[in-house]
Design brief:
- This protein has about 90 residues and is mainly α.
- The protein has one domain.
- The chain has helices at about 15-30, 35-45, 50-55, 60-65, 75-85.
- Helix 1 (about 15-30) packs antiparallel against helix 2 (about 35-45).
- It is globular and about 50 Å long.
- The chain starts with 16 loop residues before the first helix and ends in a 10-residue tail after the last helix.
């Protein structure tokens, strides 16, 4: 009997605020801009891309492009997305 597998989608495991916070904190620890943008994109997908698009006044295409592994969101875009997610960026001593 063949083993059936399913692709893992991290967005499906980001159901609550604590998991989102832990996931993004770990992403920021990498200092990898592409990974951070992609991780924020995972959270946006988990929260409903269309709803975030309306709230941020950014098109879905803009969000997908900015938050892809090859994306490079502006600070304005990043702050708008974080606000729409109910999150904020903090600075701490390294």
């Amino acid at each position: 009997m063949a083993l059936e597998t399913k692709l893992f989608d991290v967005a499906e495991s980001l159901a609550d605020h604590d998991r989102v916070q832990a996931y993004l904190s770990e992403a920021f620890e990498t200092n990898d801009p592409a990974f951070i943008a992609s991780a924020i994109g995972d959270v946006v997908r988990a929260r409903n891309m269309s709803a975030l698009s309306k709230e941020t006044k950014l098109s879905r295409e803009t969000l997908y492009n900015a938050l892809s592994k090859s994306g490079n969101p502006t600070l304005t875009t990043l702050l708008g997305i974080m606000k729409a997610l109910g999150l904020r960026l903090n600075v701490e001593t390294a």
